[in-house]
C-alpha cells in the first residue's frame, strides 16, 4: 500500500470515529496566545482531509483564526469511549454555494435569517494530525498524520468532496 492509500485508509478511520459525535470543541488562540474553545457542528468531511463548519463572521473565533490559523478539534463520546483530538489549519472561506449546500434547519438556532445572512461564514479545517485515546491500552495513538504529498494536493479554493457527517435535518 502506498502512502496515499494508507492516508486515505487513515482518513476513513478518522471519519468513522467522529461520524456520530454531534458536537466538537474548536480551540483557537488569540493574538496574545490565550486559548478559547467553543462548540461546533462538523457538517462535512471531504476526501482531501478537510472538515467543514459554519460560523458567525463577526465571532471572535473568526478574528483568532485570521491571526493564527492553527486550531484543535476535540471530539468526545464518553458513552462509546471515543476521544479524538484533531489538529489542523483553519481558514475562513467565502463560498455562498457551499454554505447553501451545508445548510440545514438546525442552523437557524444560530442564524435565524437563514443561509443567505451575510453573517454566516464558512470554516475549512485542513487536518494535519489526529490522535485518539485507546481506552483498552490506556494510551494516545496517532490515527493520521497527513504527508506533504497529500497536503500539497489540497487546493484552498477546492470545495468539492462529500461525506456529510450529520443528518441534513440537524438531527
List the helices and strands and how they pair.
Blueprint: H1 3-18, E1 23-29, E2 35-41, E3 44-46, E4 50-56, H2 60-67, E5 70-77, E6 82-93, H3 96-102, E7 120-134, E8 139-145, H4 148-153
Antiparallel strand pairs: 1-2, 1-5, 3-4, 4-7, 5-6, 6-7, 7-8
Order of helices and strands: HEEEEHEEHEEH
Percent strand:
35-45%
Alpha-beta content class = alpha+beta
Specify Rg, calculated over alpha carbons.
16 Å
Number of helices: 4
Which word captures the global form? globular
The CATH class = Mainly Beta
Number of strands: 8
Number of discrete domains:
1
How would you name the oligomeric state of the polypeptide chains in this document? single chain
Q: What is the CATH fold-level name? A: Pnp Oxidase, Chain A
Q: What is the second-level CATH architecture?
A: Roll
Mean pLDDT: 81
Cα end-to-end separation: 37 Å
Unreliable residue runs:
147-171
The biggest beta sheet is recorded as: 8 strands, antiparallel
CATH superfamily: Electron Transport, Fmn-binding Protein, Chain A
Helicity range: 10-25%
Report on the structure:
There is one protein chain. By secondary structure, the protein is α+β, with helices and mostly antiparallel strands. It has a single domain (3-153), classed as Electron Transport, Fmn-binding Protein, Chain A (Pnp Oxidase, Chain A, Roll), CATH 2.30.110.10. 22% of the residues lie in helices and 39% in strands. It contains 4 helices and 8 strands. It has helices at 3-18, 60-67, 96-102, 148-153; strands at 23-29, 35-41, 44-46, 50-56, 70-77, 82-93, 120-134, 139-145. It is globular, with a radius of gyration of 16 Å. The model is unreliable at 147-171 (pLDDT under 50).
Amino acid at each position: 500500500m502506498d502512502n496515499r492509500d494508507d492516508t486515505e485508509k487513515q482518513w476513513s478511520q478518522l471519519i468513522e470515529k467522529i461520524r456520530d459525535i454531534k458536537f466538537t470543541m474548536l480551540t483557537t488562540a488569540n493574538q496574545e496566545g490565550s486559548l478559547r474553545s467553543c462548540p461546533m457542528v462538523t457538517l462535512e468531511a471531504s476526501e482531501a482531509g478537510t472538515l467543514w463548519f459554519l460560523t458567525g463572521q463577526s465571532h471572535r473565533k473568526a478574528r483568532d483564526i485570521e491571526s493564527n490559523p492553527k486550531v484543535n478539534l476535540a471530539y468526545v463520546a464518553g458513552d462509546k469511549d471515543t476521544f479524538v483530538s484533531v489538529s489542523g489549519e483553519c481558514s475562513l472561506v467565502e463560498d455562498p454555494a457551499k454554505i447553501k449546500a451545508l445548510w440545514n434547519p438546525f442552523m437557524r438556532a444560530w442564524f435565524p435569517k437563514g443561509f443567505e445572512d451575510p453573517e454566516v461564514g464558512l470554516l475549512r479545517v485542513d487536518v494535519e494530525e489526529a490522535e485518539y485515546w485507546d481506552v483498552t491500552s490506556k494510551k494516545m495513538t496517532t490515527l493520521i498524520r497527513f504527508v506533504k504529498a497529500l497536503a500539497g494536493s489540497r487546493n484552498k479554493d477546492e470545495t468539492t468532496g462529500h461525506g456529510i457527517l450529520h443528518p441534513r435535518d440537524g438531527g
